[in-house]
């Protein structure tokens, strides 16, 4: 029999000397106990999340919070501060939950059985838990189950309380209890179980109730507390609902916590949060709350990163900041310089620079970057170079952003010797993020038709940076221009075979032009067919030349009607992604479905995978999602067009919008399926162990997967956490699993995902051994 954990033990008056074997799903006919007493008002103190003791537990806890995971290189504001203090979860009290005392419940046998349930239930996992409750279905009532749920909350076993409540809502006698639902939701949120908390929140809304202020508050803070801001969008959604649906006035601390999260990322990413940040500021002002100095600074900072500068708004914020009695710090002045430099306003930029000089503070490198930018806007590139030299003369070490900016400026000015000298300095500094500078250098060589330099720079870049589609496309175009079609064909083939690079409309058009210029019309036609299948736009002049060339061979090229059909690789990719948690939804009840691809913005591995999947499913994307020439602008969330070919996968992997495992899933676990499952929902830990996250399904379905892998001599262990199962391969089993999937894993992908596994260990692990 499973033993009860210390935290799951009931109050002393509920202790029972009788131990039952697990095979009994109900208590004995007669069980005499003195009725325990529970206070009329339930008092649940705030639970604390226990310290994570292993890398695997850290990974699982991280995921449970998720399920139940620019041009200038610089940190966002408040980067060193926590997004939301843990104590913030207790800032608002939950409504009181009135629960009758056990002795007030009728009949001694009923009281005895309830006492038995309170003792036994918290010790068991989900399946046994439900089986025990089902066996008591004939006599349990709403009041009985409410008492059991309240007891689980009182002993801080919130997962058990959630299971009891979930079982209760499925019974025919269930009557919605707002106070109980609120208390369960709040306790789950305080413990960081955001998925379960969100589920309870939605259940309250579906019952026609507006959740309590405490529920909104706690859920927002729980989302903000998810590591690396992965649930910031969800936190903003609940915040907006709190004000618009609940008509509540959030506390000042909650406004500040959310605003801090909005400006905690780098400028290139955070600039999209401007509208939400302005909404938070509006609520602070309209509710007469104190506006912190950092809120003004953060808003100006966000405005300075916008593509179109709202000059009037920045001026208004500066006036409001001074009216509030705050002095403009260096951060604000640098933000103002950044905004003015984008407009090419030399006078205002230099005036702000003078204010920084007069402040007597250390001169920030970013201010020099802004000055370089504004003079480049006016065509004074050598003045920008003088500013860069001045920065070094004043012993201010150039950072990555300053090197990027000055190399970009000098490359556009076509100052070849200066650019090459700066590039050598940048390389010798051993700083990271060399790729943007290499690209600026190659674009300059391309404009000047210096093709030998392009090849040399390409080789240097490949030796120091990860493969990049833009880099390969520039080199491919150079080879085609000089007529080296054989080498171009080799490079194009490498782009197609390497999932980390891939091809796009531009690279295919370049190769098509190359074959046409070499009068190799058969290969040109093959490229054209591939472009038609991927729905790439073919340049008009290339199409006319191809038709003319084929006419010479008495062959006419006709527009081909391409039937939409998933190829074998795309089907296997989809299965791997669905196992990892990708969502499919029905479109307008028309028998067609849409696949939603979503990747983690804070993951380098997912960033690489995002570009690869966008290229691999290009023909299945709507036109708005196919218009990105720069791979860095591809969003981290995109969806396919609605199509009936996705319906099969929806029927197999979802039932009533809930994820399930197909009955034949064990037959679909090809090496490519396993590889994409690993890349999307897995992790390789520094110890060499591999962990896969499995979405949906039950123990029986998971066991079929485990047995299928066991037939390949790969033994694994399984752990369930929330709605996900975690399958772990350790030691030699991890090596065997890696041998199977390695041919299909993207090049250099393993390094990225292993580094992120190391971060997981350093963030939450006290030892590197993970326990199942």
Q: How are the strands of the biggest sheet laid out side by side?
A: 6-7-9-8
Number of strands: 9
Arithmetic mean pLDDT = 82
Beta fraction: 5-15%
Distance between the termini: 19 Å
Pick out the low-confidence regions.
1-75, 79-86, 758-772
CATH class of the domain at 568-764: Alpha Beta
Shape: globular
Cα Rg: 31 Å
Structure class: mainly alpha
How large is the count of helical segments? Answer: 34
| CATH architectural label of the domain at 568-764 | Roll
CATH topology of the domain at 568-764, by name, is Endonuclease I-creI
Give the CATH superfamily of the domain at 568-764: Homing endonucleases
Percent helix: 40-55%
Largest sheet: 4 strands, antiparallel
Organism: Zizania palustris (Northern wild rice)
Main location: plastid
PPR repeats: 364-398, 468-502, 504-538
Family: Belongs to the PPR family. P subfamily.
Any chance you could write out the topology, listing elements then pairs?
Elements: H1 55-67, H2 108-120, H3 126-135, H4 142-154, H5 158-168, H6 178-190, H7 194-206, H8 213-224, H9 232-244, H10 252-262, H11 267-270, H12 274-286, H13 293-304, H14 311-323, H15 330-343, H16 346-359, H17 365-377, H18 381-393, H19 400-412, H20 416-428, H21 435-447, H22 451-464, H23 469-481, H24 485-497, H25 505-517, H26 521-534, H27 540-552, H28 568-580, E1 583-587, E2 592-598, H29 604-616, E3 637-639, H30 647-653, E4 654-655, E5 658-659, H31 671-681, E6 682-684, E7 690-695, H32 699-710, E8 717-721, E9 724-729, H33 732-741, H34 749-764
Antiparallel strand pairs: 1-2, 2-3, 4-5, 6-7, 7-9, 8-9
Helix pairs in contact: 1-34, 2-4, 4-5, 4-6, 5-6, 6-7, 6-8, 7-8, 8-9, 8-10, 10-12, 12-13, 13-14, 13-15, 15-16, 15-17, 16-17, 17-18, 17-19, 18-19, 19-20, 19-21, 20-21, 21-22, 21-23, 22-23, 23-24, 23-25, 24-25, 25-26, 25-27, 28-31, 29-34
PPR repeats: 364-398, 468-502, 504-538
Main location: plastid
InterPro entries: Chloro/Mito_RNA_Process, LAGLIDADG_dom, PPR_rpt
